[in-house]
Amino acid sequence: MVIDALIQKIKEKKSPCVVGIDPEWSKLPDCYKNTGLTKPEALLQWATDVIDSVAEIVPAVKPQMAFFEVFGAEGIAVHEKVVRYAHEKGLIVVDDSKRNDIGNTAKAYAFAHLAKDGPINSDFLTVSPFLGTDSLQPFIDTAKAEGKGLFVLVKTSNPSSVEISEAVTASGEKVRDWLAGYVNTIGEECVGVEGYSAIGAVVGATYPGEAEDLRKIMKNNFFLVPGYGAQGGGAADVASSFNEDGLGALVNSSRGILYHHVNVPGFEGSREQYCAIVKAQAEAMQKAIYSELKKHYPEMVY
Amino acid sequence: MVIDALIQKIKEKKSPCVVGIDPEWSKLPDCYKNTGLTKPEALLQWATDVIDSVAEIVPAVKPQMAFFEVFGAEGIAVHEKVVRYAHEKGLIVVDDSKRNDIGNTAKAYAFAHLAKDGPINSDFLTVSPFLGTDSLQPFIDTAKAEGKGLFVLVKTSNPSSVEISEAVTASGEKVRDWLAGYVNTIGEECVGVEGYSAIGAVVGATYPGEAEDLRKIMKNNFFLVPGYGAQGGGAADVASSFNEDGLGALVNSSRGILYHHVNVPGFEGSREQYCAIVKAQAEAMQKAIYSELKKHYPEMVY
Q: Is A60 in a helix, a strand, or coil?
């Protein structure tokens, strides 16, 4: 099961971190753009450089599908190659596509993104729950059958996320708490040998204590935590998303790693220098989060 | 604006109907599969046959992205060709992808699916609102800038849809009513010359009166109504999604048209026969809905 493989890699690398792969053409350094390569070739060169730079520092990467869809079918072909390359480098792939639909259509999305015989073959997929629990079932069935995992959107950090996630359900709970309970219950069917479920949640807390509250409901579910670095959150803010074993969360940074080169005064534009900056940013993130966790959870297991 | 073009075509064809393009390989008739064509070629042949068969009967088609993603980058390339072919045949394209994300990522999805300079260039896109109104804004901005449209998921017809859509927001409304109010208000920025907004809603009613209630909140927004035919709803069930002018809704059928051939006793498997069945099913849908609307709304404008 990928959840056990993920935990193994987190322990080995002392790194509950994931690097986003968000190819925004206008932000890519010129060394990938003015080289005679076609756009898809350039995207792939950039993405494989990023993967090479972070492969020893993080257990996982998170390609963001939207930024590949921008390039059409050619972009999707690059996405498929990026997933394969990350796998070759021993990385877990979190496919951030926020897919959602019902019945056969949900089943088709689940197959496309998660199936070992499918075109993408990611390890984890993010899914959006607006349509209700029967819409999530085909994703859960596929994850279970394939030994893969999901991150269900429960709470995100954008201001408007409260509009629906804090609405009150028929059971008298806030939608986010009700979803957390659902993720925990349904996740019991997919618990790996490490004690964590392959069904996790996207949790971007907007106030102190929110992640802790959700942690209490989802004790053995992994949180995918967005917003580290560029979106404003620091290491201290994410510690409460973890359990005392130092597990249970995967903290993502995308722009703060991929596009930090513009903030480096001496950046002269070479691929080597760009890769060194990407690597240094990933290392800084790993160190900051790991030392914060050690401080909060001295009994942590890695 | 595509909303005006849609209304013009609905009037011309006397048909507020849309045919889904859902390529499920196992359900495709053998005449497309055992022909020596590659899979992508076969999918394109099938989809263009369907489009040719219904082009004079309906104003729009609705390719379901999930069923193209199953085939990977090659499937996405077919999807792009299907959209172009539908446009060549004068059809409006409703891109049913239920995309959702925040900030730059939402903007990337909006560009990929709706922009005239983007790879897909659809006319309308379905979007999922779980992340809240700030997550929908980039889609609205793009739709507005490109003269395109959206259908925001407000209420779907699957049993679990009530879990979130009937939760109660901070304003004391059910999520679906609050979303309906939001769609109506934000849609005021994109009203065409025919008086309807380019920002519509997906409304699959689960009880009598639900569509009517939502209609009262979204007077000048189009409803995309799923579930005609195969999903159990008939012409009488959808009339309440319309206004008295006979406009304001687009009723979709997918499987009931695409895969009806298996219910036809004399089906011998030729493309010609398959296309005739698809055409007859689309005509039957158009007739049933148009005559039901005439009965309900004798003052309708077409």
A: strand
ipTM: 0.97
Q: In which element (H, E) is residue A126 found?
A: strand A124-127
Phi, psi values for residue A93, rounded to 5°: -115, 115
Nearest to B73 among A70, A77, A105 (CB): A77
* C-alpha distance from residue B258 to each of B27, B28, B41, B229, B284 (Å): 9, 8, 18, 11, 13
For residues A76 and B72, the answer to whether their CB atoms sit within 8 Å is yes
Contacts 24+ apart (CB under 8 A), A171-178: A175/B164, A175/B167, A176/A214, A177/A213, A177/A214, A177/A217, A178/B163
**In this complex, which of A133, A160, A169 lies closest to B133 when CB atoms are compared?**
A160
Query: A 126-185 residues with CB below 8 A of B?
Result: 128-135, 153, 156, 158-170, 175, 178
The closest alpha carbon to A103, from B210, B255, B242, belongs to B255
In chain A, what is the straight-line distance between the N-terminal and C-terminal CA atoms, in Å? 20
Angle between helix B133-146 and helix B103-114 axes, rounded to 10 deg: 30
What Cα–Cα distance (Å) separates residue B200 from each residue in B7, B104, B291?
13, 23, 24
Residues of B in contact with A163 (CB under 8 A): 132-133, 169-170, 178
Q: What is the pLDDT of residues A188-216, one digit of tens each?
A: 999 999 999 999 999 997 777 899 999 99
Q: What are phi and psi of B229, to 5 degrees?
A: 80, -110
Q: Give yes or no for B271 touching A (CB within 8 A).
A: no
Global pTM?
0.98
Nearest residue in chain A measured CA to CA from B152:
A130
- In sequence order, what are the residues at sequence separation of 6 or more whose Cβ sits closer than 8 angstroms to the Cβ of residue B158? A102, A103, A131, A132, A134, A135, B204
B231, pLDDT greater than 60: no
In the numeric block, the tokens 């998170």 are attached to: A62
